[in-house]
Amino acid sequence: MAGPSVKLSVKELGTGTISIKGLELMLGRILEEDWEEPVGPTPRPRVATLRPWDMRLLERYRPLYSPMCDMCCQCAYGKCDLSDGKKGACGIDLRTQQSRRMLLDSAIGAAAHTTHAIHLVEYLIKKRGRDSPVSLGEEVVIEAPITRVVVGMRPKTLGDLESALEYVTEGLTELLSSALPGQESSNLDFESKALHAGTLDGVAMEIADLAQISALGYPKGDPDSPLVELGMGVVDNSKPVVLFIGHNAAPGVEAVEYLEESGLYGKVELAGICCTSHDLARYRQGTKIIGPMSRQLTFVRSGIADVVVLDQECVRLDMIGEALKKDSRVITTIAQNCGGLPDLTAEPTEQIVERLVAGKDPAVLILDPVKAGEVAVKTALAIAPGRREKQYLEDALAKASKCTKCGSCRRACPHDLKVDEAVWAAKGNDPSRLADLYNFCMACGKCESACPRDLPIVSMVQEAALEAIRTSRFKVRAGRGPILDTEIRSVGRPIVMGEIPGVVAFAGCSNFPRGGHEVVEMADEFARRRFIVVASGCAAMEIGSYRDAEGLTLYEKYPGSFDAGGLVNVGSCVANSHIIGAAIKIANIFAKRNLRGNYEEIADYILNRVGAVGIVWGTFSNKAEAIGNSAVRFGIPVILGPHGAKHRRAYLGRSDRKEDWTPYDVRTGRRLYVGPAPEHLWYVAETKEEAMVMAAKLVMRPSDTTLGRQIKLTHYLDLSQRLHGTLPDDLHLFVRTETDLPILMKEQIIPILKQKGWEPTEIPQLGSTLLDRLAAGRS
Amino acid sequence: MAAEIPWQPSTVPGPKQAHILAPEMCGKLMKTAKRPIMIVGGDIDRTAPANLNIVKYTIELADALRAPLVVSPGRFGVFNAAAPGRALCMGLEEATQRLSDPEWRGFDGQGGYDLAAFIGGVYYFQNLMLSSLKGFAPKVRTLSLDRFYHPNAGFSFPNLTEERWVESLQAVAKTIGGT
What we know:
Mean pLDDT of chain B: 95
Mean pLDDT of chain A: 95
Number of helices of chain B: 7
Oligomer: heterodimer
Structural class of chain B: alpha/beta
Largest sheet of chain B: 7 strands, parallel
Distance between the termini of chain B: 33 Å
Radius of gyration of chain A: 27 Å
Helix content of chain B: 40-55%
Distance between the termini of chain A: 23 Å
């Protein structure tokens, strides 16, 4: 986007009638004069700017749609039945409708992160000033890799971040307009737009985390960030308790500051659920992480929280009512979630506290984080003594006697857990099966809604597992934020050459199909195999929620460095940007690729050379879709758990179509068969065994050296043998020359290669590319 | 419209839902298919009762049909141990993608398949793979042999008790002339 670029600064101006100090006017887009890097071809890409790149990806990775519903309900022409090839009244078909849904979901997710970033930046500018520097410390020169690549800017102050967010907001509006019936008609173009929403999401996430790390003093890439308390049993309820749920740390930060200023820090428990708790733990030691979003209902029903502060994203919509049932007080703090509550933002603090304490208004809206933090603390201090005299856990298990074993609970359970059998056993005085459900249940409460006898099944599980819940105390390393440039210098080469077998990133929500322990097993396996393991969000919490035989959590077992065998918790959802950012920084620091407005080249580099893969095992929200789209457009494949099929779309390559795997040889400009690497970009696995072997496969890249490919093949073949009981049927597709073969497995593999009619293929010496302009003789 | 409510009621897709077939009719449908394929999901042993050797049953059924047997990677090892070399290891998404491609020539290069019989997938996941085939593979008939009604299949058992399911599977095999 071209436009006027005028910046007018007036330090001091005085005339006879006016006096101006510190005036700064900015018109249009500012291009940095002191950035030596040339502007690439696509700064601030509009909706269709990166379409050619998307079409290259979609030619190889074709969308597979899995409709949740055959109907389209978007407009008043409908409902329209799109089954059997039927078109809707607007002319849409099922395939296009699925892709439109993906665009909408991705845009919703991106909008949520963007709003989050806008709130944070506004809050922090108010707190620290527009000129407050953006900095991730001396060891992170590339402070905003996604923003550099996409927006083409290097933010230096909090004020600069607003410009990037304006770009994102404009882009989201353009994208949403495309979803109006009567606009976009191609499923592939909807896919391109969904990917663009992911790109905007990446910028928004990065801006949000950059702002809060810079202005709030979170760890700046510290591999030894502190181990903090995690678990349902970490809260000391002899003290007043304030619980924060959501993603925006501002009210919690203000609560910390109020307590510190009052000399009361440590006298009130500040705990959180979901990403807010990650960020509070990054801000101050002593705040506590109760757990992922799936713990909301259970914890609030315990009645331990005196005050529940709700902010944005992933907050259960029944939290206000559930908290009030337990006589807790509720404060909502964000315009996106007003909750139908009276807006007391303009009232004096003491008056709000009085109304909350008296129960006159037990739930209020305060759209000012400073005031919300102070009110929360004062209210908790006032009501805690009286609340401690009461018992909030109901005698839920006794209600099992009403069960008729109709099975409605099981059929409503998203995971198909055998809830009916567990409740029935409890009716027969055996609550152990309900207790067993605790680690598999995400406490969504659908079983309760479905029960014709109104049994409080989540509370029954909670009561049955009470001892396990009370003793649930673990450790998670506080989110460290960015990957250091020095770490990239150290691992960039071995990652690109394949000597470090890959980066496996566990991201996303806690909708785990068979319990959270599966994500722990996977992370443990890859860390043990000396992949670089990265985690964020609810997945990062879950990874800390189990102990091994020696009593250690994975965060105590593995170092927090971005290196082979490390386990890195980057932080909250918005910290996912650092995972993508690390891949971008490899392209820049190791391979010297320019970043500024140079999206296609960077994405092409990552796709062809950087062996990174994401695993979103407990995917749930539209934000996960946006994050996934952000990653895959940058060339990082993602694997989702089986619930991921409900996002309705995958991007699958076809290993049996040789013609799909012939990028250009950078050195010669010729098309060269490189094998199906990476084979898929968006893949839903049914079981963890499938996901693990797939992850080991998807880290292979055409540019792997023979040593690197040997190492990657070793893991792929070994995991396949262990988890699938056999060598993979497609192993010959990943062997380019005999030197690729793991030495100890050669004798076993060579007969298989012969049987498959395998012949050696050329290895692109300078790498491969999908971009003709980067191939010799084709620019 | 089917008279049955899906096992997970929220998976109801719209007016077009699976026809409920009696076991004998399922058997006939499979037997008369020219190019059947069996697809086994990752929940196969979780859904089967102790008195049914579901792995043995499925292999024998595929043998009787002379059908390729695709097994979800997470459970492939069990099948490969029971009948080495008999099954193909492939994720359900990949199998669905190939079945949806009218130009795909099948695992043997002899042509696509006209009937895909599913069994043992994670319910909500298999349901969506069947939905994909329903929407985008009009030439492939789909059948669910699961204990639970799958609305997105072309044909399905109704929701059954474990006992009735085992009886139904036995009746299918008897019709085909297998196990």
